[in-house]
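As practice, study what follows.
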Amino acid sequence: MNYGYLPSWISTELERLGRLIEYVNGFLTDQAADAEAAQQTALDAHVEAQTTDSFMDFFAAGMEANEVSEAFPNLIYASLFLSLYSFLENTLDQLTKYLAREEGEGKVTPKELSHRGIFRSQVYHQKVMDIPFPDQSDAWERVEGYNRVRNSLIHSYGRVSADGGSNALRSFISATNGVEIVTGSWNQEQLSLNYDFVKLAYEDVVSVLRDLAEVYAQRSA
């Protein structure tokens, strides 16, 4: 991964997050394979024994395989995604506070802006400090979609409402690999994330922060 002009305190943490994503993916893949093998073993045993106990063993193995291959990965990838998004938001916030402290005397402070999160950093750079912000890239466009995914996960446990308020989220999901809407508990629609989505989000976070670091490098040249 090319981190460009990113300072070490940012690139080091990004490297850790990148390694964690790959480690988790490998671990979950192995666990799913083991659970599938155990399910097949239980099925073979039931075919031979044809007893109530053997059927219950097969049923339990099937439940475990389903959890290991679907439910657990979704929860873990959602947690990874939220950690990644939180890192992006915190990094942008730290850069914004640095700007305000070093160059913002007499200007509107970040707290005085009505915007929140990543959008407050975007507006502060552009509107208050007149510093270019890398928001014209495909990566940033997806980051705006990640914000909607983040809000759904944080505020409604990934459930997607049936009203028109979720249209933007639904459009983003339909255009993005690795995330989909499935029918969950209580027959409600909810988000399902996998490795491809988290990997894409990671690459986009790196891209946005790298582009912003290049802006800072050009200002100090």
The chain is about 70% helix and 5% strand. The chain has a mean pLDDT of 88. The radius of gyration is 22 Å. The CA atoms of residues 148 and 169 lie 6 Å apart.
